Amino acid sequence: MLMIYRVMLPLLLVVFVLMGLWVSFLHFPWDWVMYAVMGLEVLVATVVMAMEYQAQNVGGASGWGSFGFLGLSAYLAFFLGLVRILVWSYQKFWA
Questions:
Q1: What is the span of the domain harbouring residue 67?
Q2: Where does the sequence pass through the membrane (predicted)?
């Protein structure tokens, strides 16, 4: 029963730290971006933990939620990078 926590909690911690470092590196001009991204990560992590906990009793279903969480976090990081490039180009060329 506790095996899921030995795998998922370190994974979630690493993803949270990496996402925080990425948003800090991008240095958005607004302070609320960090709060919004971290809030979204916590919300998704809570849903993933609930899914993984319920799926551990079903053969072959456990573990897929963590892959979805990693994919969603990578997609969000890529999207944030694109948004930051757009904000930078707006500030550089049109403002």
A1: 3-94
A2: 7-26, 32-51, 63-87
Q: Which amino acid is at 60?
A: G
Neighbours of 41 (CB within 10 A): 20
The CA distance from 36 to 3, in Å, is 30
Number of structural domains found in the chain: 1
Residue 87, C-beta contacts closer than 8 angstroms, at least 6 positions apart: 28, 29
- 93 CA to centre of own chain: 31
What is the pTM (predicted TM-score) of this model?
0.86
For residue 67, is pLDDT > 70?
yes
Residue bearing tokens 């971006």:
33
| Cα gap 25→19, rounded to integer Å | 10
d(CA 1, CA 7) in angstroms, rounded, equals 12
Q: Where do we find the tokens 């590196």? A: 25
Whole-angstrom distance, CA of residue 17 vs CA of residue 7: 16
- Tokens 């949270």 — which residue? 16
